[in-house]
Amino acid sequence: MLSIDKLFEELLRLREADECDTENFNLYTHDQICEKIQEKTNLLGDSFIKYESISYIVQGPRDQGVDVLLKITPEDEPEKYVGIQVKSYNEINDKNNDLSKQLKAGYHDARYHYSENMERYYIILCGDSKKNSKRISAITNEFSKEKNVRVIGARYAFNFINLSPQTIAALVDTFLRKEDYVRSRAKQEVIEYKPHELYFVLCCLTQVLEKNNATLDAYTLHDIIECKLWERFSDVDFSEILENLSEIVLERSAYSDDAKFRIEFFPALRAMYYDLKVRYKWPEDEMLEHLYEAFRLE
To answer: Are residues 192 and 54 in the same domain?
Structure first.
């Protein structure tokens, strides 16, 4: 089972944002980025303790070469630290800044202060990945031989600070329950669906389980297709979805535009839904996003 510090790295490298998105780092101050990192790290910790008993504290801003500090106290083990040093858009963009010198000094301060308890040290570079590409690459290369240092580029960093709580929780679930039987069975129940078909099935399932009623009226079906699906898959022919899935997951009424969702085809998915509902207490839309992210991460 992965530890919380390893999951933190998985989150940091989960996905890269588009290069053009990193221009938006100019909207954030150094302290605002640190607050975002604290927020996401706390969400990670809150999800982790639903499965494992640990103590953790996220602190920031600090000194000793650390902007944000994750302090982890596993049961029956010595406490350990994950240090995070942030460089903002303005700092990276300032040609007069000797960033390499500052970062090396910060790392050595952190290593001296936390000694062998420093599990990992992250340098998060929140600049324009195109405009500052040479500077970001140079810093990455300078720390490549430091085994406890990880340099996180701007595209990964921008994606990380914009992760939703549902994506973070879904990643924790995915890594901590890889061998879970119910989860494996749920995956098999939906493995053949395309992304937009999977999203449609999950929309129907969350509606049915939240309302405790397998019948989806015409208004609800219209809302799922014209609102929820359109928002995420605007280039898909939705009439094709209904045509392809009507005889599989929907039982259409002969007398109205209502349909019955075939919940009996998804026993493991239903069990997975209730397990997550107990752990996270998400409302309907958040449950939908959590489930969808969980299968995207598989």
So the answer is: no
